[in-house]
Amino acid sequence: MTESVRADGREIVEMLRNVQFLREVSDELILQLAGISQAIDFPAGSVVFRQGEPARTIFLVVEGEVVLELCAAGVGCRRILTVGPGDLLGWSPVLENERLTATARTVEATRLIALDGAQLRSMGERSPRLGYEFMKRAALALAKRLTATRMQLVDVYGSQMPASLDSAE
Amino acid sequence: MTNVSTNVAASASAQMIAAAPTVPANDPLRPHAARIVSIRPEVAGIATYELELDDPATRDLYRFRPGQFNMLYLPGIGEAAISISSDPGAPERLLHTVRAVGNVTQALARQRVNDRILLRGPFGSAWPVEDGLGCDVILAAGGLGLPPLRPAIHELMRNRGDFGRVLLLYGARKPADLLYTDEYETWRNAGIEIEVTVDLGDANWTGHIGVVPTLFDRVALDAGRTRLFTCGPEIMMRFVIYEALDRGVAAEHAFLSIERNMNCAVGFCGHCQLGPAFACKEGPVFTWRRMGPFVETEEF
Amino acid sequence: MTDRRTTTAPGDAVALAKTDLQQVLDALRQAGYRTIGPRPSQGAIVFDDIERVEQLPIGMIDEQDGGRYRLRESDEAGWFDYVVGPHSLKNFLFPPRECVQELVQLDDGWECRTPPETGPPLAVIGVRGCDLHALAVQDRTFLEGPYVDPGYQARREKLFLVAVNCRRAAATCFCHSMQTGPAVRGGYDLALTELEDRFVVDIGTDRGAAVMDRVAWSECATEDLAQARALPADLERAMHARESEHGGPDEPRQRRMDPTGIRDLLLGNLEHPRWDDVAARCLGCTNCTMVCPTCFCSTVEEVADLSGEHVRRERAWASCFTEEHSYLASGVVRPTIRSQYRQWLTHKLASWIDQFGTSGCIGCGRCITWCPVGIDLTEEVAAIRGDAP
Questions:
Q1: Residue A164's pLDDT is what?
Q2: By three-state DSSP, how is residue C205 classified?
Q3: Is the Cβ pair B26, C141 closer than 8 Å?
Q4: How far is the C-alpha of C263 from the C-alpha of C209, rounded, in Å?
Q5: What pLDDT sits at residue A4?
Q6: Exposed/middle/buried for C214, CB within 10 Å: 0-12, 13-18, 19+?
Q7: What would the pLDDT profile of B148-201 be if each residue is shown by its tens digit?
């Protein structure tokens, strides 16, 4: 069972300040984000969101570890990535994607900050500065994730032998 | 900016091993006989060979530094450059973790315990462990990049008090490909933080999933006092270094081990060149400051 | 009239009648040297065994240009008025194929033996200034690093050099740019400058003096000495002058190369479009690396007999214009001609400086002549530099 953390505004602000994703965001913007945030604790093994569900909430990981899975009938769920403290989780609402593209399941007891997607988007429209800062960081996080995914795709390990330097044979 | 490490170095108790190649300077192709003492299968297609030099005098003389390699020779078949993966403090026992992928290494895979092979070495430059005195040291390894770093782990453990944090970031394609898993506890107990990841998790894997560079998000660096040693596929090493540079680690403090075709290992055959350097002489361990631009040039 | 000296010493210059050069050959052979000199063979001047001065290509001249080498007779030509051919000292000191190790399998393991150098000492007649520099460059590779090549060292120590000052340059020569000629400056036992009917012989070493003392030399007249000194100097001036002239198909432009800042120029332009341009022309035939007197890449190969109990390790010339050169289990680092040519040129002119403290190029122009499509490295460098050719 998840439970909302009884955290007062100050504690939420503190959590947001310490999240790597929001590093170097001004206090003023942090306060604005705090207004639409809540902290939620998840026990190990619980589902944060499911692939295919409507995308409503953006998460930032405060503590713990979450695994992303791609699920398909017959095949089951394949784990493709783990994210940890400081990472963005569930980026779809940022970009107004309708559906979540993966299932997120906690590996250990995890605390997340949940931000309402619709509210974040309208805040961004009203306050372009905040919108830009959030988008910029989301874009950066996704770019890194894309690079990492590409490396997983090409199988950098392949038949490479960094240790065993076979001479021409 | 004061260099913290030099102050510490002045009073360091660290005993770093010096290398003593057994190859005479004027006869650099002369090999020495060695016996295969043990063969330990690691993961699919990879085994660790323990070698002992036959001649006691040579055995006494032989010293290597972490990151160096031997040329293992099977007469009639050829030589292969293999990193030494054992403890430099115990050079009478030489370990080489080898994947059977070419003529020589496949022939090596057909050898049995007590068979003999020939050996020349050690060659190459070393991980500058002493450069990390008083600093935090990050070892970032991928796949078969861990064996060449293992000797550095031994040196760091032996002199643990002379270093700050020591972190091993290690990744492989899948959990079954992880090397030396039975040693992680020993390393942790010696004060080495270990983060392991795989590209593809399986049903039993509860650890990180993602490529090695993503592990940098897990660790808080003190960039000014961090030294990075990385070894693995070239793409992985580059992105590991980019992560480190993004976090403020200096390019001259990021070291990588570069693989190139080795034929003679003594700077004569010319095969191992990467721009201005010979990987067998100035390398395989290089700083990113020096070699980065050449590593990033395609097909250079 | 002063008494004729009976002995010579390094630094001396004496005169020798042309036909008496035979006495030098004889003295060397009597001292046990194998004498090598320029000989015409299959349309080119190569280095080969020589016993009689009549075997020299007297009266022959070579015409060289990109991808072109022709020999012809000329009434105006002397004994040494051709320049360099496809051979250099490299062919003898660093042979194309050499057994570097022999192994025999015995009951208790392999016995390994480095074959000792057993050939007679070599005396090479007709070495040009550029090739003496090439020798010094190869010495840095094989003798002056942390390891020494034992075969090269053994042959090098015994090498006797009779150098020749060039009176003529081929169009492909650019020693004047690389400061390696045409004048011979040091590094020889004897150096010859050819005059009408005699040589002015400069004594370079005690060994050279010892050989000369068994030969009927005479005192060198002042005018002769002045003429001998002027010849290479005049040639150098002429070479500079011919850089811009284009006298027609028989007198192609003299090549030149500006070595200023060349290391940074090339290593800073690794993606220059010129590399694509030259890659479209280069065949990857490896001729340039074979004729280049400083190229040193090699591969050691296993040669075993049927029983597998006798193994020879043979070192053979290799070339960076092959996929084998940069082969890794994970793939070839330089699989394209573009990357291979870039490797060769940046190594020769730029990386070499980092590695050995000197350029790898001595301006002999062999790579230009012997390239089947006439690729001219001086032109490639000029293009990258942005100069008009």
A1: 39
A2: coil
A3: no
A4: 40
A5: 72
A6: middle
A7: 999 999 999 999 999 999 999 999 999 999 999 999 999 999 999 999 999 988
Contacts of B6 (CB under 8 A, 6+ apart): none
DSSP secondary structure code for residue C189 in this structure? S
What are the CA-CA distances from residue B95 to residues B39, B48, B87 (Å)?
9, 6, 8
A 10 A CB-CB count for C183 gives 18
ipTM over 0.95: no
Which of C226, C134, C138, C219 minimizes the C-alpha distance to C175? C134
Contact status of A24 with chain C (Cβ, < 8 Å) = no
Residue B183: its H or E element: none
Quote the CA–CA distance of B55 and B45 in Å, as a whole number: 30
β-pair type (C13-17, A47-49): unpaired
Give chain A's count of helices (H) and strands (E): 4, 10
Distance (Å, whole) CA C160 – CA C121: 8
Contact C160, C122 (CB under 8 A): yes
Is B257–A162 a contact, with Cβ atoms under 8 angstroms apart? Answer: yes
Number of other residues whose CB lies within 10 A of the CB of residue C225 = 16
Contact C147 B26 (CB under 8 A): yes
Of A160, A168, A169, the CB nearest to C330: A160
pLDDT digits (tens, 9 = 90+) for C115-132: 998 899 999 999 999 999
The span from the CA of B272 to the CA of B290, in Å, is 16
Task: Give the separation between CA C106 and CA B174, rounded to whole angstroms.
Answer: 45
What is the model's pLDDT at position A64?
A: 95
C205: which 2 tokens? 């070493």
- For chain B, which residues score pLDDT lower than 50? 1-13
Q: Is B152 helix (H, G, I), strand (E, B) or coil?
A: helix
Which chain A residues are Cβ-neighbours of B76 within 8 angstroms?
none
User: What are the residues whose beta carbons fall under 8 Å from the beta carbon of B122, sequence distance 6 or more?
Assistant: B19, B21, B62, B63, B64, B65, B68, B69, B70, B84
Percent helix, strand and coil across chain B, each rounded to 5?
30, 30, 40
- Cα dihedral B237→B242→B243→B245 (10° resolution): 120
Residues 6+ apart with CB under 8 A from C54: none
B258 alpha-carbon distance from chain centroid:
10
Residues 6+ apart with CB under 8 A from C361: C178, C257, C294, C348, C349, C352, C377
- Rounded to two decimals, the pTM is 0.90
Taking the C-alpha atoms of residue C111 and residue C310, their distance in angstroms, rounded to an integer, is 10
- Cβ–Cβ contact B210 with C under 8 A: no
Comparing C-alpha atoms, which of A101, A57, A61, A104 is closest to residue A79? A104
